Amino acid sequence: LQRINFYDGEVCTRIGLWVNIFLTAFKLFAGLVGNSRAMIADSIHSLTDVLATGIVFVGLRISSKPADDNHPYGHGNADTIASFLVALILLMTGLYLGYSAVHVFVNKHIEIPKSIALYAALVSIIIKESLYHYTIKVGKKLNSQAIIANAWDHRSDAFSSIPALVGIFIARIWHLPIFDPIASLIIAIMIFRIAIHLMHLSVDIIMDESPDPQILEKITKITSNINGVANVHEVKVHQRGPNRTIDIKIEVDGEITVNEGHD
User: Fold this and answer.
1) What is the pLDDT of residues 109-121, one digit of tens each?
2) What percent of the chain has pLDDT over 70?
3) Which of 53, 219, 212 is nearest to 139 (CA)?
4) What percent of the chain has pLDDT over 90?
5) Higher pLDDT, 210 or 110
6) DSSP letter string over the chain?
7) Of 131, 132, 127, 135, which is closest to residue 8 (Cα–Cα)?
8) Which of 9, 121, 123, 221 has the most crowded CB, counting CB atoms within 10 A?
9) Residues 64, 8: contact at Cβ < 8 Å?
10) What is the rounded (10 degree) CA torsion for 119, 122, 124, 126?
């Protein structure tokens, strides 16, 4: 274990993948045995987490490739594309779970869930919230939008288990089974909102949106302090996955030679 770098992007993603596989099977079993629509919805969310984590893993592999003749800026945008695909999966999951919850209301096929569904929700919250904190720390350390998106995917799963826990609890204690599909609908809305937020972040990067003004000011200040630089203007920053490409124009003393100005 001492040789494993837990802050490596691929290691972090592998851990998330195996945890999601376990939780998918566990929550699906608990939902089916425990007659809980909310827990079945939660297990479907975990299943999409498995797919999302797999996409992040592939994205990290591609983005780590060096620049070549066809990709002079490198393959970093694979990280952003993976982030967008994760958000798209979350969006479709939210829509499906919302439709499923409404379908239950219309058909009125509702049963009181059993206690195993309650325990499954509690276990899911603890595990996925812990996984979120670990993954978001790695994502920020590596400046990887894909890993950060995957972290929010973990947290959305933890959040989705909270209304499942509350809905199942109320349905069992007060014998109001209607709260189980209500919890499922709340889960769908929460996932949908997270998906829209992540898609917005990814699209901003793909569209080369300018970064925070403080970053531009820092680049300008560092460049201006270089000996021989008379003026700095037209600072442009392009995010390439976890890295940034900077295009910048500088002015030098017009009386020096071309070689000196180039240097």
Assistant:
1) 667 888 898 899 8
2) 98
3) 53
4) 31
5) 210
6) -TT--TTSHHHHHHHHHHHHHHHHHHHHHHHHHTT-HHHHHHHHHHHHHHHHHHHHHHHHHHHTSPP-SS-TT-STHHHHHHHHHHHHHHHHHHHHHHHHHHHHHHHT---PPPHHHHHHHHHHHHHHHHHHHHHHHHHHHHT-HHHHHHHHHHHHHHHHHHHHHHHHHHHHHS--TTHHHHHHHHHHHHHHHHHHHHHHHHHHHHTT----HHHHHHHHHHHHTSTT--EEEEEEEEEETTEEEEEEEEE--TTS-HHHHH-
7) 135
8) 121
9) no
10) -140
- Yes or no: say if 14 and 58 are a contact pair by the CB < 8 Å rule: no
pLDDT digits (tens, 9 = 90+) for 11-30: 999 999 999 999 999 999 99
d(CA 119, CA 91): 27
Instruction: Please compute Rg for the chain using Cα positions.
Output: 24
